[in-house]
């Protein structure tokens, strides 16, 4: 009796694995990949500056350091996520370089051109 039970359980697991791999189990699987296209177009619009993270740096501390104008935390988080997909802003790694949103890009370029 145990052999039949485990055989049926094994066949059920094989069938569900095959169904999941062939068609996917998430109904919104295709819809999740569609919003990535607008994010790519947003990336071109958001000005950014590449910064290497030092010990003690956070997303907000670096953003405040490179920008004169203060932005809302939600906007900074959203823009950072667009610029750095698959990076958790709460777990930045020391020594790695990330793209941080630069909100006063015009001010930085004019300040850089003055001696």
Automatic annotation (TrEMBL):
InterPro entries listed in its UniProt record: LysM, LysM_dom_sf
Keywords: Signal
Keyword Signal: yes
Boundaries of every LysM domain copy: 49-100
Ranges that cross the membrane: none
Signal peptide: 1-19
Protein name: LysM peptidoglycan-binding domain-containing protein
């Amino acid at each position: 009796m145990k052999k039949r039970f485990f055989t049926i359980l094994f066949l059920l697991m094989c069938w569900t694995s095959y169904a999941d791999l062939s068609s996917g189990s998430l109904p919104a699987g295709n819809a999740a990949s569609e919003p990535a296209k607008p994010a790519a177009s947003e990336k071109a619009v958001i000005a950014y500056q590449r910064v290497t993270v030092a010990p003690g740096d956070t997303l907000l501390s670096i953003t405040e350091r490179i920008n004169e104008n203060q932005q809302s935390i939600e906007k900074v988080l959203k823009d950072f996520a667009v610029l750095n997909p698959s990076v958790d802003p709460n777990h930045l790694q020391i020594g790695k370089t990330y793209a941080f949103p630069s909100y006063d890009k015009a001010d930085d370029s004019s300040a850089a051109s003055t001696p």
